[in-house]
Amino acid sequence: MKQTLKSLLAVLVTANIAAPAYADPVERSVVPELTVPKALRLLENQGYHDFRKIKVERDDHEIEVEARNPDGHRVEIELDLFSGKIIDIERD
After folding, report:
1. Please, are residues 58 and 81 in contact by the beta-carbon 8 Å criterion?
2. Contact 43/65 with Cβ under 8 angstroms?
3. I need a labelling partner for 3 at 20 to 30 A (CA). Which of 11, 18, 58, 82 fits?
4. Local confidence pLDDT in tens for the 92 residues of the chain
5. 63, 56 Cβ separation under 8 angstroms
6. Torsion (CA) 43, 47, 49, 54 in degrees, nearest 10
């Protein structure tokens, strides 16, 4: 009986040591949100100006900006909150 317990214990210890160790999953790096000043600079570089209303919609992952396009027309621009890419432009 003692021999059986020792053998079982040896198997359990060996199995525990020989089992591969897995690290906790690493959380993917979080991309920081675009700041409002950076978003406005991106739009300025594309010719938009006269920024009026700026709204950060974290639930929708976007920034909404009312401005004028390069032709001077009023528009509402939706930017991706993380990449800064224009999602949609509506002309008022």
Report:
1. yes
2. yes
3. 18
4. 556 555 655 555 555 555 555 555 555 556 788 999 999 999 999 999 999 999 999 999 999 999 999 999 999 999 999 999 999 999 98
5. yes
6. -20
**In this structure, is the dihedral angle defined by the CA atoms of residues 56, 60, 66 and 69, taken in order, positive or negative?**
positive
| Distance of alpha carbon 63 from alpha carbon 34, whole angstroms | 9
Q: Which of 19, 61, 10 is nearest to 39 (CA)?
A: 61
**Tokens at 55, concatenated:** 């709204």
- DSSP conformation class of 27: P
Integer Cα distance of 37 and 28 in angstroms? 26
Q: Which residues have C-beta within 8 Å of that of residue 73, sequence separation ≥ 6? A: 91, 92
Tell me the H-state helices in the chain.
2-18, 36-45
Q: How many H-runs (helices) and E-runs (strands) does the chain carry?
A: 2, 4
